[in-house]
Amino acid sequence: MNKGLIASVPVLGAALVGAAVAWPTVASAKDEVRLHPKLNGRVNELEQELRIMKNRMKAIERRQGGSKSSGRSVRRTKKKVQLIIDGQVHRAVLFGSTRQNTEILHVDGDQSNTRLRLRGIANAPGGWKVEARIEFEMENNDSNGTRDATPNFDDLNFRKLRIRFSHRKYGAISIGREDTATNGIAELDLSGGTVAMYSDVETVGGGFVHVNAVNGVTGSGGGVATGQTVAASWNNFDGSSRRDLIRYDTPKFFGFWISASHANGDRLSVAIRYVGSFFGLKDFKLAAGFGYDYLPGEGASAPGSAFIAGDATGPRQQYAGSVSVLHKPSGLSITFSAGTQVQGGGARENPWSVYTKLGWQTKALLPQLGKTIIMADAFYAREIAAVGDRFKGFGIGAVQNIDSASTAIYVVYRLYDLHKAGLASRGQSTIHVVMVGSRLKF
What we know:
By secondary structure, the chain is mostly beta strands. It has 2 domains: 3-64; 82-117 and 138-155 and 181-441, Porin. The chain is built from 3 helices and 19 strands. It has helices at residues 3-32, 37-64, 230-233, and strands at residues 82-97, 102-108, 115-124, 128-137, 157-167, 171-179, 209-213, 223-229, 242-249, 256-263, 267-278, 281-295, 316-327, 332-342, 352-362, 372-382, 390-402, 407-419, 429-441. The chain has a 16-stranded antiparallel beta barrel. Helix 1 (3-32) packs antiparallel against helix 2. It is globular. Residues 1-17, 19-33, 66-71, 215-222 and 299-307 have low confidence and may be disordered.
């Protein structure tokens, strides 16, 4: 608290006492001098100053006693650093039907999982800004990996622990656990409904296991699990996620900027992005990006953007990108994403995947709540988990935003179909998934 303001408290208190004692006299004097406008004006000024002093006293009491009236209190040790605390909770009910059984699961939405962030932001000389971020996720049964037989209790996972130095002219340098330069490069999406569905389709029911009929004939003897989950059957090749690294981002130039990072294990990532108008048309917004990852030989179980089965020695080179266009007046959008991984040893055909999505967002349906988003997507992948694998599917979904509560509620339906090489077409596995969820940001 300001020392001068603290020192002035006794003076202000004495002034308030004196003013309170003199109040009747002032009031009567005001009545007696109605014919003297200047004196009346001075009395009005004194009354206004008295009200200001009272307000200042109340403010001092609130500061000394904490934020008792609001119920919120955040204490900081460094007054020059702004502290921001925010986060979100995302919970959902997941229904899945395979040839083997039907399951109802209660999960944390992996499309945008439950998390908490603490950010410290300070200004430095020369126009630089310094930001420290601690961000961790708390997932209880994530929708990407959970299934009834093997529940997933991934209670605490640190997402980001980093310091960032940024300047409008010189760009930004990040040090610590942070997104690689290519993280998110295959997931640029202007539909407004990514809380429910986007190109990482495995986030909705990724833990369900594909099941084929015995001897490739449906309806005879029941089903047996292939052991291959939805998550193992799909990859959108979206960079190397979050790692311990150093990263540099250039300043934006006409909506373009370039990012580069080096992470532990000698993983190199470079990406270029653009966000802005579509060829100068103000009614259109465009988001586009393309990225390259060098993945050294770490084995098939490498974390992050994992190696694809086959040649597990590497090195590999990964390419991915996405583009999304939004027509702002109508709310219509279209999104496309694709990626591949080039194997070092050439053991088999390079895996690849494609994804496309249509979206429509409008406030006309429930204007008292917020935007309604309706979406449909389709996807196809080859050679992801094994030679000859063909994985495909489609989905539909809707999101309703509740702006006044910073909340979104949604429903998604997805069909996943896996064809394994060497099995009869009638013996292939189809999974139906419905997910109903809600996310609240704070």
